[in-house]
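Many introductory courses stop at the sequence. We go one step further.
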Amino acid sequence: MRVADQKIQLQIQEIQMSNVRQRKKTLHDLAMYFAEKGKVLTQAEYIKAEDKPVTFWGIRNVFRNYSRMTEMLKANEPDLYALIGKKEEPKPVAPKPAPVVEAAPKPQPKPAPVAAVKPAPAVKVEK
């Protein structure tokens, strides 16, 4: 194999994601972690977390970015993602009914005054 071909092969390997077994294991670990937390953490929350199972850079190496990891989590671990979603949604709180206030009857509007029509002044005609 020529040196140029080897360089191209190395570049292609750098672009590709990790193997399937590594992705599945990482997704499963992350799904279990998010299920314990009760929600899928945002990227900033995940970076600040102290008890994360996979480092942020490990996620970057396996999935290339955090949003792709969340999409793959939905697609590949739907059962665990459903558990995460159930804990994530709070119970809906019924809104309190507004107090009924009886409106006071509206006063009848006064009829508009009718303008009186003045007769036109007489016009003098000169001969």
